[in-house]
Amino acid sequence: MSDTPDSAVQTVRKYIARHRAAFLDDLAEWLRIPSVSAQPAHAPDVRRSAEWLAAKLTETGFPVAEVWETEGGAPAVFAEWPSGDPDAPTVLVYGHHDVQPAAREDGWDTDPFEPVVVGNRLYARGAADDKGQVFFHTLGVRAHLALTGRTAPAVNLKLLVEGEEEFGSPHFRELVERRRDRLAADAVVVSDTGMWSETTPTVCTGMRGLTDCEIVLYGPDQDIHSGSFGGAVPNPATIAARLAAALHDEHERVTVPGFYDGIAALTEAERRLIAELPFDEESWLATAKSHGTLGEAGYSTLERVWARPTAEVNGIGGGYQGAGSKTIIPSSAVLKLSFRLVAGQDPERIESAVRDWVAARLPDGIRHKITFWGATRPCLTPLDHPALQAVVRSMSRAFDDAKIRFTREGGSGPAADLQDVLGAPVLFLGISVPSDGWHAPNEKVELDLLFKGVETTAHLWGDLSAALR
Amino acid sequence: MSDTPDSAVQTVRKYIARHRAAFLDDLAEWLRIPSVSAQPAHAPDVRRSAEWLAAKLTETGFPVAEVWETEGGAPAVFAEWPSGDPDAPTVLVYGHHDVQPAAREDGWDTDPFEPVVVGNRLYARGAADDKGQVFFHTLGVRAHLALTGRTAPAVNLKLLVEGEEEFGSPHFRELVERRRDRLAADAVVVSDTGMWSETTPTVCTGMRGLTDCEIVLYGPDQDIHSGSFGGAVPNPATIAARLAAALHDEHERVTVPGFYDGIAALTEAERRLIAELPFDEESWLATAKSHGTLGEAGYSTLERVWARPTAEVNGIGGGYQGAGSKTIIPSSAVLKLSFRLVAGQDPERIESAVRDWVAARLPDGIRHKITFWGATRPCLTPLDHPALQAVVRSMSRAFDDAKIRFTREGGSGPAADLQDVLGAPVLFLGISVPSDGWHAPNEKVELDLLFKGVETTAHLWGDLSAALR
């Protein structure tokens, strides 16, 4: 069965309209489960949320829907719906069912776990991050079947919905490695991101990677008197400061040797696509809650956060930090650094370069210990990748043929682990907007956009099935 | 009455020998009073200590011995013994009767407030810092009278023994200013310092000054995500580190403009006197509990801590300092700096230079607040000052004509307030040695040296009376 694009869009919209109310009722039921993974008291709710979702996916039609245990006790949900076509490619959708903590007294106007629709918005913890964006896939795959007349999706559709994303996915990599055979896919679709704005639909093409470390510097065996000894022995707080200060040159470029090795220069096309976005520095600063910009010379703010690597001081501490003064030379100091990485950078090489750089900069009398916490690789899908083009086409249909623009994510996510372990390109399909208030009070999702997500996936599986062959 | 030096020394020693036992009994009685000024529970003991001392000074012969209240509630003791000679100069002795906290469980082998004599050492909290060194003046002035046959000292002798030195003398300056008429003196003798070692008697000639401040830097209005915003906004922890790192150049010289203005270069004679001391880097490092030296190029370690100014980071803090990692850009950071000052430097000018230097180095988007905690001026008595020479001569007699060498103090003390307010040169007469363990468990005083202190003052008042006319 095949439709012209216009009639396909109509078919999908009609199908969605018929199921809209039930879909929202179901989503509300899920949102009522306070699956706060960071709070041990909510561990039973995280489990309940996983079981609820597995049951709902079975009801949706997935022949396989399993709750997968992790070492941390916050289970993930895995579901699978084979295409039936032996040549069909496999797509793995990623999302998470755990949510950030939330309480009325944090500034919520309503109970964060009692969803409320006001106008075109659904307010609840997890409405956008990430239950809403996981859940649109349930109605989406049904709309896809309705559109195509198929009894199974055009791709082998898999879902992996983890339960510990909001406290750093500590066991996710292990889970993916252990289950790599079940998770094998030709592409990963991540639905845990956003769009530029309500009026500028966008597709994210990549995320920065991350490697971070702690450097502890040891000087005197105990805090010593800054009068008796000051000016004659190395002060670990000063040396920590010198390390942090030496991380960047006067152009705000990272000075660690080899740091930029392997990074391809931004192409004119890439820069143009970024420059085309309706960027307003004042509102960006408001989002960043910051009062000025500062970054690598020669790049715009968006290029700096999306396409260029960084070294940031996440924490520094040494000596007396209380009220008033205490004239000591501290015995130790700590420096917490994170490096955001872009395509071409290898976290292991960066780690080794940072270790060497630190060791070479310490004076006699300062011992140190450096610990890396592990790394997330950057991911970036080329603009001309057929799978990315399929996402763009499907989204454009959902958004009434709107021009789809491109963003990237400055942050880093477990999606990169899927890319790494499964060797599959990562696509991003997110319909959240900056005003949705992730991690903040009064989190909401725009219902119009939520159903655009449903619509997009209704078109996407057929399009991807062709693109990935 | 006049003796040859030899017979004078004999006279003094005989007098001391006769009164030695009673002197030690009295000192032990005083040491039993736990006058811990930093612990509110001991406030009555601090008062009792002051009253005990005032009574003892009356018994010693001081016609005036008063307990002076301070705003903090830790009283000082003032005593005065006029010479009777209208042309006699006035000397003010400074010390303190409060002590550091101490408890058996800190590692004391005996009760810190139950003095014990073992061999030639008296163990008790305050034995050296500072009750022992205050108390040798009581027997010293009696020995002086016995030696000279006078009924009053050869100088107008004043004592000021404060009760809050061990928690930073917060009300001392105010007290000195309020009582400046009663305290007026031609010279101040500070007995709250030490000598180089048991075998190297020394006189301290000066202390460094101090000014210290807190700089708080404000960036984003709250901690923000280092992925979403990293590389594009100024990070206050990084900027704090850059300030701290920029404080020194590659020669470890302080870079604040004008910092070294007004400092006279060390003379060859001064450098020779410092170089003559039996300095051993290894044991100095052991005292500093440090594992390497680092300081201003072109100066020895002792020159660096005694005769050169410093900028030290006493504390730095910003962002996440707990276990593991947290990938944020912190909203603020704090930097605690202290500057040790030497003769010629003016704390107010330094404060102003630091304020300007900080303000000029902050990027857009970083606001700041800088607070100075007040300042202590440096003091330095010239080597050829007749009063200093008198101290050297008296000490040499007590130490069997030993060569007296010269030290300085790297720290800063309330002595400088006396110098400032009274406009009098400060002399140091201390007989404590580094092994005495100030502020540490098992504090002790070497009895031989304690009585050398008594002997020195027996000679000193006559010698100073001549030197200060």
Class of the largest domain in chain A in CATH?
Answer: Alpha Beta
The CATH architecture classification of the largest domain in chain A is: 3-Layer(aba) Sandwich
Question: Residue-averaged pLDDT of chain A, rounded?
Answer: 95
What is the number of beta strands of chain A?
Answer: 18
Radius of gyration of chain A: 24 Å
Shape of chain A: globular
Query: How many DSSP helices of chain A?
Result: 13
- Strand percentage of chain A lies at 15-25%
CATH superfamily of the largest domain in chain A: Zn peptidases
**What would you call the quaternary organization?**
homodimer
Q: Largest sheet of chain A at a glance? A: 6 strands, mixed
Describe this structure in words.
The structure is a homodimer of 469-residue chains. The first copy, chain A, is of the alpha+beta class and 469 residues long. The first copy, chain A, has helices at 5-31, 43-60, 131-148, 172-178, 180-183, 236-246, 268-276, 281-287, 301-306, 347-360, 386-398, 415-422, 447-467; strands at residues 64-68, 76-81, 90-96, 116-118, 121-123, 156-162, 187-190, 202-207, 209-218, 224-225, 310-319, 328-329, 332-341, 367-376, 379-380, 405-409, 426-428, 444-446. Chain A folds into 2 domains: 5-207 and 378-467, Zn peptidases (Aminopeptidase); 209-263 and 309-376, Alpha-Beta Plaits (2-Layer Sandwich). Chain A is built from 13 helices and 18 strands. A 6-stranded mixed sheet of chain A has the order 1-2-6-3-7-17, with helices on both faces. Chain A has a 4-stranded antiparallel sheet with strand order 11-13-9-14, with helices on one face. In chain A, a hairpin with a 2-residue loop joins β4 and β5. The first copy, chain A, starts with a helix and ends with a helix. In chain A, 54% of the residues are buried. At the A-B interface, β9, β10, α6, α9 and β11 of A face β9, β10, α6, α9 and β11 of B. β11 of chain A pairs antiparallel with β11 (310-319) of chain B.
